[in-house]
Specification:
The protein is of the alpha/beta class. Helix content is about 50%, strand content about 10%. The two termini are about 40 Å apart.
Length: about 350
């Protein structure tokens, strides 16, 4: 079933659907309210009306997301939450909520940024409670038992995702790079009742001796352009690990043992890997990348950046320089979302893989 058909089937079951802009948000809370979050990252919308509402130097994730709304591609959504990921997402929140005349409710979630002081935990928990209260007119009051159930499901999904990453790092997954990220990105739009058996089936069918070839660590926002995975497969390169915002930065947390589900969500947020969108220290990010490279035996790092993504661009020069000192060559791919695989990008990737090989 494709994404659109799946979302309509979910609505037929009585669930609300929310179009969530990236990246950090409490999806367990939405699940508990019988809401299916559907993340808006790289929709295949043709450029058009969004340019009339945004500056030309806004990142294309924001531009494509607004284009999707303006063209009616998100009409099945009942509401739109906006996490405080970056200034561009905040700008988009104002445009959608105040200026384009759409009649769906918008919600705002402000997660704390590093360095985390003593009040950060209580602030984050307060944000969870405030969001639940704001959603009551749309979805009804929050049932603590449902929240507990969904938190456990979130922990199960995180455990299955960690297994996928661990097996890939150990070269014990037979799947291609394209198949790997098709599975990992399924969580952007799939309900946990369906996602858990899907990931279990993927693990059951993909374990075995992995492909040989130069091993890569991916960092940045998301694999872009999408055709890059097929190219890496053709070149025999293996994505051994990632530090992507759509990937390990959101999924590799240690499950909390707290009995209170709100406390569990709070603890899990603060043990996520470092991320530029949370103002994590460069030293922490470098140590995390070094750890991933060692565990996965990666021979080089590919940074996938979205043009004008300021949080990532601020960190990139120092991270690249320090990784080279550690003996890890780097390649930076900086382009617009869905611009296609140009000959120039393909040639640079081929040369990088050949150098590692």
């Amino acid at each position: 079933m494709n994404r659109k058909a799946y979302l309509r089937a979910q609505k037929d079951q009585g669930r609300k659907v929310m179009g969530v802009f990236p990246a950090q948000y409490p999806r367990e809370l939405l699940w508990a309210l019988n809401i299916l979050p559907v993340e808006i990252w790289d929709p295949p919308a043709e450029p058009g009306r969004a340019a009339g509402h945004l500056q030309p130097y806004i990142c294309s994730i924001v531009r494509q997301g607004l284009e999707l709304l303006l063209q009616g591609g998100a009409d099945d959504c009942d509401a739109f939450p906006f996490p405080h990921t970056c200034d561009s997402i905040q700008n988009l929140a104002s445009v959608v909520n105040d200026y384009i005349g759409q009649d769906k409710p918008c919600y705002f979630f402000y997660h704390p940024k590093a360095p985390y002081g003593a009040p950060a935990r209580s602030y984050y928990r307060g944000q969870l409670q405030a969001l639940a209260q704001e959603l009551e007119p749309l979805a009804g009051p929050l049932d603590p038992a449902q929240l507990q159930r969904r938190v456990i499901q979130g922990q199960t999904i995180a455990g299955l995702t960690r297994q996928i990453y661990d097996l890939r790092a150990a070269n014990a997954l037979t799947c291609s790079n394209a198949q790997l990220y098709q599975a990992l990105r399924r969580g952007e739009w799939t309900h946990p009742d369906d996602l858990i058996p899907y990931l279990e089936g993927f693990l059951a069918g993909a374990q075995g001796q992995g492909p040989a070839g130069p091993r890569l660590l991916l960092s940045g926002v998301l694999p872009n352009p999408p055709e890059i995975m097929a190219l890496l497969d053709e070149l025999g390169a293996v994505v051994a690990a990632d530090d992507l915002i759509i990937g390990s930065r959101r999924s590799l947390f240690s499950p909390s043992a707290a009995a209170d589900p709100l406390e569990a969500l709070t603890e899990q947020y603060f043990c996520l890997p470092p991320c530029s969108t949370k103002d994590s220290a460069l030293a922490d990010r470098l140590a995390w990348l070094q750890k991933l490279a060692q565990q996965s035996r990666a021979q080089g790092v590919v940074f996938f950046l979205v043009k004008f993504c300021e949080p990532e661009l601020f960190d990139l020069p120092i991270l690249g320089e320090e990784l080279k000192k550690l003996g890890l060559p780097t390649l930076t791919i900086d382009c617009e979302i869905n611009q296609g695989l140009s000959g120039q990008i393909a040639t640079r990737v081929e040369a990088f893989v050949e150098m590692l090989g």
